[in-house]
Amino acid sequence: MANSTAAAADPLPHHPNFHPSFSPPSSPSQSSSSTPSSAAELITVLNPATADPLATISATPATTIAALVAHANEQFRQGAWARADASERFRVLARAGVLIRERMAELVDLEVKQTGRPVREMTAQLGRVGEWFDYFASLARTHQDDSTPFKGPVLNVLKCQPLGVCALITPWNHPVLIASKKLAAALAAGNVVILKPSELAPLSVLKLGEILREAGLPDGTLSIVNGYGRETGKFLCEAKGLAKIDLTGGLATYEAVAPTAARNLTGLTAELGGKAPVCIFQSVGAEKGVRAALFASFIAAGQTCVTGSRLLVHERIYDEFKEVLVRRVAALRVGHPRDEHTQVGALINDAAVQRCSSFIRKAEEEGDVILCGGKPTSVDGRGYFFEPTVVETQRKSFLSCHEVFGPVIALIRCKDEDDIVRTANDSAFALGASVWTDDFAQAHRVADKIDAGVVWVNGHHLNDPSSPWGGWKESGMGKENGVEAFESYTKVKSVVFNYGIEPSWFDEVGAGTRYG
Ligand code: NAD
């Protein structure tokens, strides 16, 4: 377990929940105050690279969540943000983008410590997070109401209004990026937000709350609550008065959340897991194909939803590809995340290491070949690490069909283009996929045929606030990013102005009298 209950005398820094205008109801478990009232309310956040405790957070109880959701609805009704002029929303969110850039070092430091991801990766990722606030600030400012070609002397205006109180539930792997993707869209559209980051990596997200407050977001518009998913996350998703839940996480979490959302008629966006195929055709050659595969597969030690976890390689280059791949993977530098030279950092916790090991055992049972890696490891004798691993397998194997969320990658020989496409689509997941080819026509053909919400051609992991992001099938529903995400945080009101039809239905009988 990465998290455990801390001792009362724990000297660790405590990171309180963020809800500036809300005082939790007093009760024996008043866990949302700055100073928790009992050790039982504390969750310890660990540094996965060392297994050392980093900080404590408060586990937010059901009574506090219920009161907070009611408070958030009152804030929405009062309208300090929901009815703020678009130019004001632009000003605040654009300012948040500036402040995020100014606080980069602080955010990177927290992300590296709590996720175990290498400093090089987090610096690159967080270097772009301000763009999400820039982009959605601009959408807020430039979004125009539409009108329809309504028949007759009628003007039908479609007004996009904010939904209300939205619950954002985020995972630990890209804490600030994923929180920002959801927050920037939800706030740009004028909603009040309650965000629950992962209990494994909440510290940088709490910092983001302070940054938004400093940028001028009215108090009461954003709250950030901590706690375990099975408790605080569940209490939040089950609370009455939510207009939308936007979840990024695993399928099991979606399955826990969806029934209540359905019962309460709460809108649900779900960004779930993946088993991204990396389709490598002969025209790119083995050397470049391997560079593509390394990038697709081992960023974040394979702990991203779009990890290139199935390498589908055309048989004409397969043998050479395999030989180069194994050599390069074995040479990847696993190390301490703070070290600038580290290429592969830690896994999030011991459970993640155990999960990788169990995939290896299953692969061996099924007769797959472990080409390199395959074992837990450590850095300076500490932390949760796993060797970068390549397993030669086939498309129906357990490894090919299930998300590892770690650096254990399936390598599959494919005989031709049709075989690559069929194998790519032979999955319950359909989130990301990449196609590597120098053949222009093939690039179009294969991109069209692949089942995935995001298909990259000669790229992987490419992401932009303007580019819709989200999966199909068991990878989820709805989109982050782009106009789609902004609009998913609004509801359309159809306002019909009549400037010429008299209410004469019951006055006269005759052709041309119109009621609808
Ligand atoms: P997780 O599902 O365990 O947790 C995600 C969040 O949900 C956490 O905040 C957790 O506390 C909360 N949660 C857990 N159970 C809950 C419940 N019953 N009710 C309400 N909230 C609950 O996922 P994780 O381990 O944090 O992240 C890994 C998963 O997320 C992987 O499957 C990965 O593919 C997926 N993911 C998807 C995307 C995407 O864009 N599609 C991005 C990142 C991660």
Automatic annotation (TrEMBL):
The keyword Signal does not apply. Keywords: Aromatic hydrocarbons catabolism, Oxidoreductase. One of its GO terms (molecular function) is aldehyde dehydrogenase (NAD+) activity. It catalyses: an aldehyde + NAD(+) + H2O = a carboxylate + NADH + 2 H(+). Residues 28-38 have a biased composition (Low complexity). Its EC number is 1.2.1.3. InterPro entries: Ald_DH/histidinol_DH, Ald_DH_C, Ald_DH_CS_GLU, Ald_DH_N, Aldehyde_DH_dom. SUPFAM superfamilies: ALDH-like. It holds the Pfam family Aldedh. Pathway: Aromatic compound metabolism; naphthalene degradation. Residues 39-495 form the Aldehyde dehydrogenase domain. Belongs to the aldehyde dehydrogenase family. This is aldehyde dehydrogenase (NAD(+)). It comes from Cyphellophora europaea (strain CBS 101466).
